[in-house]
Amino acid sequence: MSNIVFESVTRVFRRDGRDFLTLDGISLEIAEKEFVAVVGPSGCGKTTCMRMVAGLEFPTSGQVKVAGEAVRKPSSERAVVFQQFALFPWKSVWDNIDFGLRVKGLPAQKRREIIEHYIGLMNLKGYESAYPHQLSGGMQQRVAIARAYALDPQVLLMDEPFGALDAQTRVVMQEELVKLARINPRTVLFITHAVDESVYLADRVVIMTSRPGKVKEIVDVKSTREKEGWDKYSKIEDVMDLPSFVSLRTHIWRSLREEHGHVEERA
Amino acid sequence: MSGGADPHLGHWPLSIAGLAAFFGIWWLAAGLGLAPPQFLPMPQDVLRTFFDLLHEPFAGYTLGQHLWSSFLRFAMGFLLAAAIGVPLGLLMGWFEWLDRIVTPLFECIRYVAPIAWVPFAALWFGTGIGGPVLIIFAGAFPPCVVNSYRGAKYVEPRLIEAAQTLGASNLRIVAQVLLPAALPSIVAGLRVSAGLGWMSLIGAELIVASSGIGYMLVKGQSNIDTAIVMSGMIAIGLVGVAIDMLLRRAEARLLRYRHPSNS
User: Would residue B235 count as lying in a domain?
Assistant: First the structure.
């Protein structure tokens, strides 16, 4: 059964009295527990797609459905990891993760178990009482990921979650996310502009055209990954050296470059 | 450290010099007979009167008792203003319909000087405690509302969106996101509020009270005792400074999470 469905979704922005078409007839189905990455040139509306699943924005026409129901407002069943972390600066690491659990009304004992579990999983032990500003960017993003996963949502939405991190931290986070996704498979919609990242993380990669955004191509990564046994390698650089990885990455690069019509800097 | 101050002594020498110059000029003006004592008392007379008033009752009470009765009224009016004004401002910052209902009314009322409530304070409460409390409330309420409202409006949208996607309801967002995020602005508002409240109180007591520091001033005036009036003014200033210092300490505590060294 499809978990997230875009049914000919169109989005028009109005600015200075003029209409701008940003999304043009997006149709896409994402299966339960599938990890889908969306890549595309900046301004193609990929973040808007994610925000419509989150219930933070709405289509001008068409529909976005999650688990068969049209999205009308935000819900903790659709947790979001934002690019700029969006942690509550006045709350400690522990309390940030606790926020959504309290909203859910879980008993204290249960909340403690969940928080401890994700603090361990995301390597945050010893930082429970630290405030966000005392942590590095990578650690802040780990808290944000823990905060989203802790809710055990149907769907996880990630908007360039590693975009604000330095290159080394980003690699560590990508590896950890893969581990987490294996332990705890979820339906994930992952927005990025980094092609390597999309191939490394996703089951399928959706390539979008430049504005107005349309689905240009959908690349199946999962079958290649399983056939070539990428999961045997724990380090990202080992996977990225494999010919099967390189060929998928190059394919996506070419497709994206056509969209730009000019040379894109490698991310 | 900015221009001119000795880095080891800080700004203290300059501050002391400023005070010394003030008292020097005062002392000269009064001592050289430029102004007769019934218009301007000598600084040392004021000082003596100030300490006398601490144990000798004037207009029924000692200076300390007057101050305490003023302070209680202030505390009631100020806390009432904060308890109503802060939540109202935050809710107005979140619910647009409430903003629409309240803002026109509020904008008109906030420009009415607190002292303009004196006739009604007297009419409704006589010389009871309600009168001064109403006037303090009138002075302290607007900054509470305005600053909470602005603070709520300037909360980073991504924090609100994060809370929404974590499932938070409207009221939870107001209480657990807008309130803490707007706290710097709210506390700044409370400080302005306390200042205005304290000033309004003294004005109110000049007219509708039978104790308190403002009442003491009026009685001093009718006795043509300028030293008593001046002592009262000094006490008002000192308590005002003390209230602000208390609020600053509260502010530092509340906003501790922003300062790496304190946590």
Answer: no
